[in-house]
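Researcher: Please predict.
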Amino acid sequence: MIAEFLLPDLGEGLPEAEIVQWHVAEGDTVTLNQTIAEVETAKAIVEIPSPYAGTVQGLHAAAGDVVEVGSPLVSFAVEGADAGTPAPASSEPTSAPAAVSPAAVSPAAAAEGRAVEEVVDAPVEVPADDIAARATPNLVGYGAAPTSGTRPRRRARGAGTVTLDTDRAVREAAPHDVVRTGPIDLPLERPRSTPPVRKFAKDHGIDLVLVAAAHPGEMVTRAHVEEYAARIAPPSTAATQAPTRAESRSDTSSEGSVVPSGSAVRASDPRVTRTPIRGVRKHTAAAMVQSAFTAPHATTFLTLDVTATTELLASLKTDRALDGHKIGLLAIVAKAVCLALGRTPALNARWDEAAGEIVEHHYVNLGIAAATDRGLVVPVIPDADALALVDLADAIAELAATARAGRTAPAAMTGGTFSITNVGVFGVDAGTPILNPGEAGILAVGALRRTPWEHHGEIALRDVLTLSLSFDHRLVDGAEAARFLTDVAGVMREPGRAMLLR
């Protein structure tokens, strides 16, 4: 029989993924759980295993195409129900939902192009064997296979984690700084507005989520959309108009050849190059906007002499007991941050607007920015405060290597409580990093420089760097930020002071 495999939810409610490459072709024979494709989400590159053993009958997308979750991905020719189809849990009759006829959908919903949603009104008794025969095998690693024929009520298409379609002004105005690509803490429901307003926004390429971010708790009106459109209007609309969703899937060059989605596309004007917005860059821009609209940012700086730390690191390199461990400056900073957060818990908290609470964490899930070919991502080291220096250094090294290879799992980039970005590796002395949504602080580590510095009443060449701390001023006041930064600096000036902090 022919079995159609739909793109599953790859984690965290991401609505779509881009096909990076296929590992199979039509006519190939595959085994259960054999890797058939690599897809890229807004967070990571994920390998898709085959849910069937059989023959590839057809591929429904090409490399570079963006496929929505639930859309057909590949068809298999399988032999009966034994080729990967789960056995029924019971022979007793179970319930299956009845589907609503397309005619029952309101004209307004049809006008907006929303898909017909199935609604469970009254369960219909059908044999479990029939359900099992129609069931799609569970994709390994993405949740337990269903054991009942009764399906839960489906959520409306507007509900769930929101992924923003950012426009040109957001892409150009958003600071190019580190931000975790984890899920953004946005309302589950789409912004409140009327159908005419939604249509007006769609016709003008405006994402209502971005408009609503400037008017929290309000119903979005046409005036709000017009105000936003006027604010982001480019000098020349004809020359700089952002590509539409249809254009982003594939574009045609002046020679008429189709350019794969995801690559840079040269427009008819040779001075302009268009690149579809997706993946990490799209998610980063969305998170930047959300962070900037919700958290009042403030940044404080401290330049300090870290010669004692560099001397400690030099001595550790000659310690044979540490062979195979690479302990660097970032590991010392991470350890100092974990110790300092224990003394300033406000920087290890989050502002829960919906609950009207400040949530203080009694653990440190430390995000470490990593530069990759796909952009900046921030994988998280869970319970970093419980790790010894050597273990922390090993975790940072493994995290960076995995991120550069593009293999960081989506779950590894969520749940952070504080982040560090090492801008010094790019030769930058200081900066004003943007907070990751849901976090109260982020520390930027500047370049290490050999600098003339006052030392014991004389001028000497010393190892000097600058720390930049950005914080959410709703949660942290200036005195707390200064105390935290001083604690971090104290450990780096004199590593032995770590013995005094708890």
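Model: The domain at 1-94 is CATH 2.40.50.100 (OB fold (Dihydrolipoamide Acetyltransferase, E2P)).
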